[in-house]
Amino acid sequence: MALTLAIMAGCESVIEESPSYEESSIVHVGDPAPPFEICSIDGDTLVMPMQRATLLILFSHTCSDCQHLMTDLQQSIGDGEHSYNIMAISRGGTQQELEAFRNEYELRFPIAADVDKSIYSMYATMYVPRCYVVDQQGIVRFVTFEYEAGDVDRLLAELSKFIK
Predict the structure, then answer these.
(1) Per-residue DSSP letters for 49-92?
(2) What is the pTM of this model?
(3) What pLDDT digit, counting tens, does each position of 123-141 carry?
(4) Could you tell me the CA-to-CA distances from 159 to 5, 129, 140 in Å, in that order?
(5) Are 66 and 129 in contact (CB under 8 A)?
């Protein structure tokens, strides 16, 4: 009986309520996108802001929602030329892990590893995927959290509003 009470007491002390998506967000619609520069796994420099409308995806290569988002996005944009500027920044992960992730899901847009999570921490404190549509002036115009069916269509529609 004492053991059971100790376990119950121990569990009660561990239970915490997680913050909402809003509470874990640092950047909101209407805010300037925090600036950064990072090298992609292909050696290209990715810069925010870009003076070009951009879909910024903050993700984790181990997250199943992120995997669904990325494959759905790649299917939507296809392999050909498109007018979308997309960059995906992984919260953690190594160069090798992200290369394997990209190859497994046949992704064709730039991906970079935010190894120390310094970029991610400018935007949020927890939860992935997070997607930000950033206009040409570097202002966040649309945000999604997690991933639901239809998000890719909404993201590309919002991004298209700022493509000239």
Answers:
(1) S-SS-EEEEEE-TT-HHHHHHHHHHHHHH-SS--S--EEEEEES
(2) 0.87
(3) 999 999 999 999 999 999 9
(4) 54, 17, 11
(5) yes
pLDDT digits over 86-108, tens only?
Answer: 999 999 999 999 999 999 999 99
Cross-strand pairs, 133: 55, 142
Q: Order the strands of the 111-114 sheet from edge to edge.
A: 111-114, 86-91, 54-59, 130-134, 140-145
Residue 68 CA to residue 111 CA, distance in Å, equals 16
Sequence letter at residue 160: S
Q: What angle do CA 133, 127, 69 make, to 5 degrees?
A: 55
Handedness of CA 105, 107, 89, 33 (dihedral sign): negative
Q: Which domains does the chain have, with CATH numbers?
A: 22-160 (3.40.30.10)
Find, among 23, 93, 82, 94, the residue nearest to 55 by Cα: 82
Those residues with Cβ within 8 angstroms of residue 156's Cβ, 6 or more apart along the chain or in another chain:
55, 76, 77, 84
Give the pairing type, strands 111-114 and 130-134: unpaired
Q: Could you say which DSSP state residue 125 is in?
A: S
Contact 87, 57 (CB under 8 A): yes
